[in-house]
Amino acid sequence: MTAMWQVIFYTGFAVIAFYFFLLRPVLQEQKSRRKAVRQLQVGDEIVTTGGLIGEVKDVVVPVDGPTELILEIAPGVRVRALTDAVARRLSTLEPEETPASPTEAAPGEVSHTSA
């Protein structure tokens, strides 16, 4: 009889340990990711699961179907992406500051000017 209770105890302990060490962190990460995607706004810069980096230009919420984002990945190049494809949010677009000189590149940036 004691052996049966030991098996039940250790099985229950294993299930609880599995939940707290493996399942709970994954569920919390998914919850925070869904929250971050819901808070996306026009002007946010994101990275997709395919590796594209783009700026959110529009959020399309159809009556039925998944929410789509219109991303600008280069000047004048816009693509559609599903919110499920958002890997992470890089930044929120803030008002642009005027640079000191248009020919100077910021530290760490490469300037491509034609001569």
Give a written overview of the molecule.
There is one protein chain. It contains one helix and five strands, in the order H-E-E-E-E-E. With 115 residues, the chain is α+β, with helices and mostly antiparallel strands. The chain has one domain (2-92): SH3 type barrels. A five-stranded antiparallel beta sheet has the order 4-3-2-1-5, covered by helices on one side. The mean pLDDT is 82.
Q: What order do the helices and strands come in, and which of them pair?
A:
Layout: H1 2-38, E1 44-48, E2 53-60, E3 68-74, E4 77-82, E5 86-92
Antiparallel strand pairs: 1-2, 1-5, 2-3, 3-4
Q: H/E order of the elements? A: HEEEEE
Approximately how much beta-strand content do the residues carry?
Answer: 25-35%
| Proportion of helical residues | 25-40%
Mean pLDDT: 82
Q: List how many beta strands DSSP finds.
A: 5
Provide a concise account of the structure shown:
The protein is an alpha+beta fold. It has one helix at 2-38, and strands at 44-48, 53-60, 68-74, 77-82, 86-92. The chain is elongated.
Key terms for this structure?
single chain; alpha+beta; 5-stranded antiparallel sheet; 5 strands
